[in-house]
Amino acid sequence: MKFAKSAILALGLVFLAHAPASAQTPSVEDQARIAAAARPKSAFSDLRAVGVGMVIIGAAMGIGGLTRAAVESMARQPETAATIQTAMIISAALIEGVTFFALIIIMLFTSPY
Predict the structure, then answer these.
(1) Nearest to 62 by CA among 97, 102, 95
(2) For residue 33, what are the CA distances in angstroms to 24, 28, 37, 39, 113?
(3) Which pTM value belongs to this model?
(4) Whether 70 contacts 88, CB under 8 Å
(5) Residue ranges of the chain with per-residue pLDDT less than 50
């Protein structure tokens, strides 16, 4: 019963929040943006999602391989586990930083506007 009440309340809030936004008329700038988005684009302009996916898959494979190698080396030499773990965390943070940078570059330089 508690879940049903929460679901009804959430659905009601969604409808209430949507009503004022849908009642507004688009401005001239918004209409120009919509018209520009409807025009045909170049052949590769919609491949932003593919680029983002490739970046994320590459980062996941890199961090996964790093973790696999670190756990394997910790299993072989448990006395060096602290050093290996520290190096692994630093390397994973650097991989994530490069990933975020690549995502920002993809989003900025392939912007349709």
Answers:
(1) 95
(2) 16, 9, 6, 10, 8
(3) 0.57
(4) yes
(5) none
Q: What is the b/e burial string over 30-53, where b = at least 16 CB atoms within 10 angstroms of the residue's CB?
A: eeeeeeeeeeeeeeeeeeeeebee
Q: Report the C-alpha gap between 36 and 111 in whole angstroms.
A: 12
**Single-letter amino acid code for the residue at 17:** A
pLDDT at 16: 65
Contacts of 33 (CB under 8 A, 6+ apart): 113
Q: CA-CA distance, 77 to 66, in Å (whole number)?
A: 16
What is the residue type of 89?
Answer: I
User: Measured between alpha carbons, how far is residue 41 from residues 24, 66, 104, 105 in Å?
Assistant: 28, 40, 21, 20
Both tokens of residue 96?
């994530």
Q: Which domains does the chain have, with CATH numbers?
A: 46-113 (1.20.20.10)
Quickly tell me which residue has 């448990």 as its tokens. Answer: 78
Query: Which tokens hold the place of 8?
Result: 């009804």
